[in-house]
Amino acid sequence: MKPPYERIVLEKRESRTVAALRDALLRKLLSEELRMRTAEKLLEVE
């Protein structure tokens, strides 16, 4: 198990990454530059 401070750093980094992705996709969706089905395909995780 990783030390608590290391987990906090990793989780903060992940949170910033997810927020940046959300903001980028939301801007494109609102401007209709990107359609929902296309966004869903981009985010599919196998």
Structure notes:
This protein has one domain (4-43). 76% of the residues lie in helices and 0% in strands. By secondary structure, the protein is mostly helical.
Task: Briefly characterize the structure.
The chain is 76% helix and 0% strand.
| Low-pLDDT stretches | none
**Number of E-type strands:** 0
| Content of β-strand | under 5%
Structural class: mainly alpha
Counting structural domains, the number is 1
Q: N-to-C terminal Cα separation, in Å?
A: 26 Å
Furnish the topology, listing elements before pairings:
Layout: H1 4-30, H2 36-43
What would the keywords be for this entry?
mainly alpha; 46 residues
